[in-house]
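Instructor's aside before we start: the two examples that follow are unrelated to each other. I chose them only because their records fit on one page, so don't look for a connection. First example below.
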Amino acid sequence: MITLKIDNLSHDGKGIGRIEGKTIFVAGAIPGDEVSAYITQEQASFSEATLKEILVASPDRVEPFCELYNQCGGCQLQHASIEAQRRFKTDNFITALKKAVDMRKCKIAPALTSEDTGYRRRARFVYGRNKSNKEANFGFRAKGSVDIIDVPQCPLLTPALNEALTLKREQRIPEASRSLKEVTALETPTGVVWSDETTSANYSFSLKQQAYQFSLPSDGFIQVNSELNEQMIQQAIDWCQLESHHSVLDLFCGVGNFTLPIASQVAKVVGVEGDAQLIEHAKKNADANQLGQTQFYKTDLFNDCSGYQWFHGEKYDRILLDPGRQGAHQISQILGRLKAEIIVYVSCNAATLIRDLKLLEAQNYQIRKAGFMDMFPHTSHAEVMVQLVKVKKLPKKKKQDIFKI
């Protein structure tokens, strides 16, 4: 057992302390805590520990508001105030950026935030009988386990989703088996849609008094926080600095979440996505919103794209990327060939974003804006955005003096 002061937070929500220079990760601890903990795993450069007791509580520590918090694996940070969560996440992101890329001309944007409960309009549930006790449950995965925690209600879900959860849970628990099943729920303007009952869904939003309508597969990707999604799209558009004659490339476009609002302001937008089903929905969405200045292409963006029609010999004024957690490593290596003046990169994984920023920096792109967006309050996940501007040549980094002995 050890005693230590927690002075930082890891990307996955664990407290970080140090003993004799060695890093110790403690789940359930936050900066400002002094704790006792048991070492559970020893590595050469770090150790994992389990929290035993909080000896001195951080001023940022609060009581979790969910009764299932210590069992359910859905949230990791309910024991920290929402203000502290946002501060920790922003600081972690900016610190990592400063270590990796040239930040001398970068402005840090205010965090985008919304309500921290009742915000989640989409959720994937698991149901079946746990192997450990054979009990039939409907809910989320347990902390550090493949077991299912039974979830009658979740304070992060929208009221409509919680109401639908109650009914679905009553239907599915009697038929639960040892073969676990997943089902996705999505709140739409016309009600909650379940992926085991229908194949398509819809959503809508308005930006600056212009409404947009979207359809998507019922189990397809959608940003779970509708209010943050609208704020994020507006910020991306602002950072793109669009003009009416511009040609824009939207990579990992999905069903057109960014593509359509951008299209309403420019001459041409090309959306590229690897999922054929999402591309079909994107085309239908463009037609439904009467945005004929859009073109969509199905392309695997994790392979060489230099020979495709939308890339080879083309030039774009602006590029927007919104990849999944794996990032955009392959396409980032050659984006400079398209000669865009501004690139806006949206990411749910700061580590892969920073990896890709280094590739873009090597092609004379310099980061000018960066910001955190609290898309997933009370979890360790973070949505971030950066703006890069094409420069003639990046200034050389100062070399450290080398003294010969």
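Example two begins here.
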Amino acid sequence: MNNPYFRTAFPGRGRFYPSVALILPLTLSVVASACKQNPSSPQSGVFSKQPLVLSPAKTPIVPAPELTTLAPAPISSALGQPQPKTKPSSAPSTPKVTKPSAYQSTQAETLALPPKPSGTSPKVPIRVAIAREADYLVIGTSTPATVMDQNGQLVKKLPAQFAENFVVQGGQLQVGSASAPAVVWVKPASSEGLIYVSGRWYRGAVQVIANNGQLLGVNHLDMESYLYSVVGAEMPPSWPLEALKSQAIAARSYALAHVARPSNSFYDLGDTPRWQAYRGVETETHSTLAAVEQTAGIVLSYNGAVVESLYAASDHIVRDVHKGFGMSQNGANQLAQRQYSFQQILAHFYPGTRLAWLQLSS
């Protein structure tokens, strides 16, 4: 490809906000190969002043957030990929493609994967806005948690399965009946704890910021845990694993570009298709965890920098909105049904790029 610069794709569902995109360097180095949920408003301005007890039945059962790194393995065959370490969820088999498509007539090329560097892949932190301009937030945790100020001073303790209302009254942030500073953190005591924010559960910690009488909620977590949800929100988890792996790498590269060029000082990107769809643990499945873990630390690269990779639902949208540069999610599914590997799928949609490993800069 003569021009490696891509225009920003905001996947999904018919909403696009094209802009000039860059291939962005990061403080992390790469080792390259040689070859919508909008915050709910309270009805009529009224919210419950009593704590809300969360139903234990709603607590998702998910693995602990510790990540499994991809074991080094030479890529001797385009189809010789490691098996998932978690059993993919059962789902109806995808119907066979009976009509020839543009992808079937394309010779399969493969993006080579360089040897994995020694050591584990770095855990890259990411900040995702999960509530913006909210009038109030209902926040609870699956395990005991603390609400702390910016200096680490305790504001309030939250028991497990117990929620409080976060609201601004008279210019002051209130956490239940307790007054709080304008910026607080909600952190589970256990690394396995999940945080409930107005209808959804999330990994990591949540920062709540009061500004002009409204609230901003920002989920702080590591990149791989974030991708567990994004892959399932952007692509049906029942699709072939190789398609999900392609989605994981494209989403990781896109997110890293926004870590390098954050949306503002409070968060790197939002949770809607304006950026990438992110719905917390509700879109995590065995197959999305396997796709992320088996590609952990792998990004699309060009000249040593991470590519802000574009993708959209169909090749029609990619062609019309993004001038043909980017991955068609439906096209990735078709290729995966034909036994294409994720390396072949990515080579098809991102010609001229390379696969690379993230490393901490020395």
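The chain has a mean pLDDT of 75.
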